[in-house]
Amino acid sequence: MNTTDPSAPAITYADSGVDTAAGDRAVELMKEAVAATHGPQVLGGIGAFAGLVDVSALKDYRRPLLASSTDGVGTKIAIAREMDTHDTIGRDLVGMVVDDIVVVGAAPLAMTDYIACGAVVPERIADIVRGIAEGCRLADCALVGGETAEHPGLMAAEDYDVAGAAVGVVEADQLLGPDRVRRGDVVIGMDASGLHSNGYSLVRAVLAAQGLSLEAHIDAFGRSLGEELLEPTRIYTADLLAVLADPRTAGAVHALSHVTGGGLGANLARVMPRGLAARVDRGSWEPGAVFSQIARWGSVPQLDLEGTLNMGIGMVALVGAEQADATLAVLSEQGLGARVIGEVVAEDRLPEPGTPSEHVIAGAKGVDGGAVLLAGQHPGWA
């Protein structure tokens, strides 16, 4: 039955707000960057319904375990949109995903992305994907597929969000985690590049309360506020895989913790076994200027700040004490600043907090494990 009203104006897909030609143009702009992440293990090219990766190498594993992770970037996108700078967000996305995979000792194999937007602006979409491709290159991970979805009427034309997922592999007997952690292990903290991709709702609330412009030059940062806030997330994967593979540090790393939402204490507690605790000395490092500025601008209580932001430590390794120096040496060779920030002790020997700013964290993220004591104070902090 023909239900078309001949008197009604014709409505096309483009009239509804979806521009398929713009999507095709975005793909053309990003193709070269995506292809640069493909090694001989990647089959086919861009445009296939599914990405294909040759995993024949897994036949050499005794018991390969697949590790998977998915994540997004959160409200940091609001900063990118206001600054009209979109080529760093992709690196943030990769860091959030692949650094969760390496925590169990796995090497990432392949990643896919998803971008939802109100309207496809080819150059903007291409910038985002080029950032994702750069992040994958830094992590030695192939970007094998993705999707861009246009949602007119659901999202404003300038709005977008990004998400990604990746899969990696680890030999079962090399799996890292709480069961390897021992009393006497040292806690090594690795430098963050800045805020990374967590806590931006707090940061944006502070900026709004103070009426601060992203264009404002901040002497403590040596650049504009917006540039500081868009500093890409450090990607630790390649550095950590180098430590795990180096003969000098064989078996040194017992567990890793990626410091994301919830901060250092909550994420470190996720890899502490029951009966053990990590005593972390804040005096062993000084958070970057961005953390103290946010605290000052918003009068943010310290416990709230460090339960939200990474406080300058983006990744933590629990390492056998006898191999701590070798681990620090290999990390230094990788160009990654790191230092001992604490030790693992029996939970019943954990000292009581000595000041209001010291506190014990346990049971974070639903994990029934050990505890973390954040003790002391950062240099220069009251």
Give an overview in words.
The protein is an alpha+beta fold and 382 residues long. It folds into 2 domains: 20-45 and 62-174, 60s Ribosomal Protein L30, Chain: A (2-Layer Sandwich), CATH 3.30.1330; 178-375, PurM-like C-terminal domain (Phosphoribosyl-aminoimidazole Synthetase, Chain A, domain 2), CATH 3.90.650.10. Helices cover 30% and strands 24% of the residues. A hairpin with an 8-residue loop joins strand 14 and strand 15. The protein is globular. This is Phosphoribosylformylglycinamidine cyclo-ligase. Belongs to the AIR synthase family. GO terms for molecular function: phosphoribosylformylglycinamidine cyclo-ligase activity. Residues 183-349 form the PurM-like C-terminal domain.
Major sheet description: 7 strands, mixed
Mean pLDDT comes to 90
Strand content: 15-25%
Give the beta-strand count. Answer: 15
What's the arrangement of strands in the largest beta sheet?
10-12-7-13-11-15-14
Short recap of the structure:
The chain has 382 residues and is an alpha+beta fold. It is built from eleven helices and 15 strands. The N and C termini lie far apart (78 Å).
Topology at a glance:
Blueprint: H1 20-35, E1 42-43, E2 52-53, E3 64-72, H2 76-83, H3 89-102, E4 107-117, H4 122-139, E5 142-150, E6 160-171, E7 186-191, H5 200-210, E8 217-218, E9 223-224, H6 225-229, H7 237-245, E10 253-258, H8 263-269, E11 276-281, H9 289-298, H10 302-306, E12 313-319, H11 324-333, E13 338-346, E14 359-362, E15 371-375
Parallel strand pairs: 4-5, 11-15
Antiparallel strand pairs: 1-2, 3-6, 4-6, 7-12, 7-13, 8-9, 10-12, 11-13, 14-15
Helix pairs in contact: 1-4, 3-4
